[in-house]
Amino acid sequence: MQRRNFIKQTTIAVAALAVAPGLSAQAADGLIVGQGNKRYKVNTDWGKLDFARYPVKDCHEMVQDKQGRIILLTNETQNNVIIYDKSGKLITTWGHEYPGAHGLTLFDENGTEVLFICDNNLHKVFKTTLDGKVLLTLSYPKETGRYEKEENYVPTETAIAANGDIYVADGYGEDFIIQYDYKGNYIRHFGGRGDKDENLLNAHGVCIDNRNPGKPCLIVTSRQQNAFKRYTLDGQYINTIPLPGAWVCRPVIKGDYLYAAVLQSNSKLWQQSGFVTILDKNYKVVSNLAGSEPVYDKAVPEEMYQTIKLFQYPHDVCIDDEGNMYVAQWNSGHVYPYKLQPVV
Amino acid sequence: MKHAFFIGVLLLIIFRGNGQKQYQLAEPLLQYRSAFFKDTAMLQMHFRQASTAIHYTINGSDPKETDAVYKMPLVLKDKISIVKARAFGNDFLPSEIATLTFIKTGLPFSAAEITKPDEKYKANGAATLTDNIGGIPGHGNGTWLGYQDDSVTITLNADKPLKVSEVLLDFLRDEGTWIFLPESISVFAENGGKLQQVATDVLSDKEPADGSHCLYRELKLDKPVKTAKLLIKINTVKHIPGWHPGKGNHAWMFIDEIKVY
């Protein structure tokens, strides 16, 4: 733990050094990133707020609700949740009780939207209303028999299936995916560390892929292995999608595409070398935003890496109802989210 | 860095007119099997970003746009080749410089006895130090011997006495993960049944460095000595300096290769 904290601190120091006057932020970036028909124009000013009143630490994850609002989760307890409109205007904030706020998932429960928040420090998952009222709390999964104490469980993400089943990724703990029913009753666990294909290393994100009608599956991040892994909804391993070089965060599916923040390039660890990757329906990388143009030799892409120093450590993306992308960043000098608009 | 900063300021002045923010390119990706080699080494460079090019040098100078454009893999043969590469593109500030040093194998010494490395970072044991595999940043890649001991001793043997004039050691510098260069290195050679000190070196990490880097040290002997046995003693950093968040703790020392010339 000490070590991880230390890495965070040094990278902050380095971040301060990297902001040379020639690189300081100004309005209207004009920068276009990405390849093919997935290119975006960058706006780094989108989410900027008065830091004295609405501070952020790590901007961990973002989702959009039915009203079109963009909801950001940060581990800053002055306002764990910051809600914007699509133009970047602040609507409201709430939340002071999530010091380790990390994972944010939105689920439409029979017409009512709810949020699932994973807290790294509290070792718990909370289901809340859109305005923060806690509806359900999931503590560490004793039922698995794999956890001696709460501290070993560090949930990073949830995904909710159509039937309400909750999948929690213990991405900074033991790397298990723990499945519960909608009431929070333990069903099973799978993944975990090990040498087999179905094992995970830094299971940082999870999502349900409904793009293939009648055959939904789970996509799980194995970040340190630079890969996504697919499982059936009952935890049977299907296959691995190798993404050499890319420390992918959670998969985010919108329309036919899968989007993911890439925390950093494997070739430049802990040096602010992140980018964003986009995969098509066949899990083939079609564009890297501020990253290398994807090239395939058979089924596996060539090693990918950052090419433009636009992002530092992107941690999540959110795609809104108009196809715009919002990028939240971890440990990137308290930066607010950026907005990227598709170039048509 | 100084260079990039200067160019940055210059470009800022030039481009201020259209109000566009200038972004910097990232460093090119350098791919190679190992920085150590017997006969030749091959280096591939990649930078898949439209309207950019990699310019490089192999003489140690900082690449400019007038230097060679990378088109095909480089083949390196010299004892030491310092490759520097940098991405340039019209709409961007040039990247930082990616530097890589390739080192050719020397006399046939092999590591016989070593201080036992940490269980997590034992690579292939003593053989790791002369296997021509390494020069790859990142402490977790299985090519490094990692230590938290106060001192590390390595014995190198040759089949017969050989004329030795220099010893080269390759270390990892990665302060973010508490890996520091050693404090000092001493080389002893066996001569007539006795060990005598033939070279020393003192190092220091005075300032924080960014990222993970390989750093080699060449210890030249005052005069060549004929020997079949070398003993190398490495003193590690026992107390991490005050500027570091881990101050006072014992630092790690990582080594991956030793060459004798």
Structure notes:
The complex is a heterodimer of chains A (344) and B (261). Helices cover 5% and strands 42% of the residues of chain A. With 344 residues, chain A is mainly beta. Chain A has one domain (2-342): Neuraminidase, CATH 2.120.10.30. In chain A, the strands form 7 sheets. Chain A has a 5-stranded antiparallel beta sheet, with no helix packed on it. In chain A, strands 19, 20, 21, 22 and 23 form a 5-stranded antiparallel beta sheet that branches. A 4-stranded antiparallel beta sheet of chain A has the order 3-4-5-6, with no helix packed on it. The longest helix of chain A has 17 residues, at 2-18. Chain A starts with a helix and ends with a strand. By secondary structure, chain B is mainly beta. Chain B has 2 domains: 2-103, Immunoglobulin-like (Sandwich), CATH 2.60.40.10; 106-260, Jelly Rolls (Sandwich), CATH 2.60.120. Chain B is 5% helix and 47% strand. The longest helix of chain B is centred in the first third of the chain and has 14 residues, at 2-15. Chain B starts with a helix and ends with a strand. Residues 11-19 of chain B have low confidence and may be disordered. The A-B interface holds A 2-3, 5-7, 9-11, 13-14, 17, 20-23, 25-31, 35, 44, 245, 265, 267-271, 273, 292-293, 295, 302-303, 305-310 and B 4-5, 7-9, 11-12, 18-27, 29, 31, 46-50, 52, 87, 92-93, 138, 175-178, 208, 210-212, 245-246.
